[in-house]
Amino acid sequence: MKRARLSRCALLACCVTIAACSQTTGLSGVHYTPNGISVRERSATPLAYGVLYNFMAPPDGNYPVAGLIDVNGTLYSTTAGGGADCGTSSSYCGTVYSITTSGQEKVLHSFGKGADGGDPSASLIDVKGTLYGTTVADGAHQAGTVFSITTGGTEKVLYSFSGTTDGYAPYGTLIDVKGTLYGTTSGGGSHGDGTVFRITTGGKEKVLHSFAGGSDGESPSAGLTDVSGTLYGTTDGGGAYSDGTVFSITTGGTEKVLHSFGKGTDGQFPRAGLTDVSGTLYGTTEEGGAYATCGYSGKTPCGTVFSITTGGTENVVHSFNARTDGDDPDGTLIDVNGTLYGTTSGGGADGGGTFFSITTGGTVTVLHDFGKAPDGAYPRGSLVDVKGTLYGITQNGGPHDNNYGTVFSITP
Predict the structure, then answer these.
(1) Closest by alpha carbon to 399, among 21, 9, 12?
(2) 3-state secondary structure (DSSP) of residue 119
(3) What letter would DSSP give residue 9?
(4) Could you give the CA distance from residue 221 to residue 214 in angstroms, rounded to a whole number?
(5) What's residue 42's pLDDT?
(6) Arithmetic mean of pLDDT, 134-142
(7) Pairing between strand 364-369 and 39-40?
(8) How many CB atoms sit inside 10 A of residue 253's CB?
(9) How far apart are CA 158 and CA 135, in angstroms?
(10) In contact, 58 and 79? CB cutoff 8 Å
(11) Is the pLDDT of residue 11 over 60?
(12) pTM for this one?
């Protein structure tokens, strides 16, 4: 059965206190081959790892769940909680913030006032120097928004979802295709199962597809990927086995299910976007895989990394196994010179998630284990590469007195 989605804000109270360390050295490499897939359990090479910033109580942002983006050497993102207006006029809140690669953070905008959005859970995108994003909640109809914000902090709500046929709760990151933005909503639409939409930078919105559940997908949680003018994405549910799908859609709105998850040792519940590597797409599923139960909780399997061609041929590249290499990968992978990097939001040696690399052939190396105080815990969102150093966020962790999340860097 598909796990119920928790509000991002409801996830924020996890009490794990965790780390900043200037360097970490992995355990000696341990090799094994489950199902013929080669895995190196821990990196044997010293890695430059550090916590750049520990989020604090409001008016600072806290509990980040979205990845960072690089704009001319400065990083930008959102937090799902915190901000100057948190807990006042809205049950939701959050911020847009900037942070330098040396760790100087600044709140650019606090959500939650008036008809503004709340609970931003997606990464931002840069379109000609202006940033665009979404909020899951609030807005004029309490169903989420699309907004723009300058790097100086001037924010504007471009569109407020109505919660009906145009959708609600846009969790996925927007994509820019020739100056028009495309995205997904996890609910609403003609059938109540989510939508794909497009919106101009001026705020004119149109629904391209309403998911219908059943053999079609339902509840898309991730953004879209553009491959030669066709968009590809995932749904968290629906499909032939009710465990999610990969779909394609044209910019005119013609949608096709390419793969239904859930058969045998296949993955289940993809909640991350797809990454294009030379025409083959790579992604993650939060559950499913080769192992019968997940090592920490005894739940259904811990998740997978998969590949899929644009024609729909899917292959499980790796099955996670909790303490060994992580559990619940829900962030979009990043391609760095042909090697993929990602995070798991749970599992690992210390229970707070992992940072890993994986080759397109399936060899996994755990580069860092989160969860040992006072490090970060539960990394989410995608990573960003800035001159060979990767930057990411953890939803929780940090010094013993806050647990509000961190920004970290790691140089493989």
Answers:
(1) 21
(2) coil
(3) G
(4) 17
(5) 58
(6) 96
(7) parallel
(8) 14
(9) 11
(10) no
(11) no
(12) 0.90
> What would the two tokens of residue 253 be?
């709105």
Burial 27-41 (b: 16+ CB within 10 A, else e): eeeeeeeeeebebbb
The per-residue DSSP string of 160-192 comes to E--SSTT-B---SPPEEETTEEEEEESBBSTTS
Distance (Å, whole) CA 81 – CA 372: 23
**Residue 85: predicted pLDDT:** 80
CA angle 73, 78, 82 (to 5 degrees): 130
Q: How far is CA 284 from CA 173, 287, 340, 364, in A?
A: 16, 9, 12, 14
**What Cα–Cα distance (Å) separates residue 173 from each residue in 133, 331, 364?**
7, 11, 26
Residue ranges of E strands in 161-270:
175-177, 180-185, 195-200, 205-210, 217-218, 225-227, 230-235, 237-238, 245-250, 255-260, 267-268
Torsion angle of C-alpha atoms 350, 355, 361, 362, degrees rounded to 10: 20
What whole-number distance in Å separates Cα of residue 191 and Cα of residue 168? 12
Residue 377: the pLDDT is: 95
Where residue 173 falls among pLDDT bands split at 50, 70, 90?
very high
Rounded CA gap, 147 and 315, in Å? 37
Is residue 40's pLDDT more than 50?
Answer: no
Q: Are 161 and 145 in contact (CB under 8 A)?
A: yes
Cα pseudo-dihedral 85, 86, 88, 91, rounded to 10: 130
d(CA 216, CA 197) in angstroms, rounded, equals 17
How far is it, in rounded angstroms, from Cα 350 to Cα 228?
41
The strand pair at 175-177 and 81-82 is best described as: unpaired
Residue 310: Cβ within 10 Å count? 16
Distance (Å, rounded) from C-alpha 31 to C-alpha 135?
A: 43
Burial class (CB in 10 A: 0-12, 13-18, 19+), 211: buried
Among 374, 371, 367, 380, which Cα is nearest to 349's? 371
Q: How far apart are the first and last CA of the chain?
A: 37
pLDDT at 228 over 80: yes
User: Residue 6 CB: number of other CB atoms within 10 A?
Assistant: 9
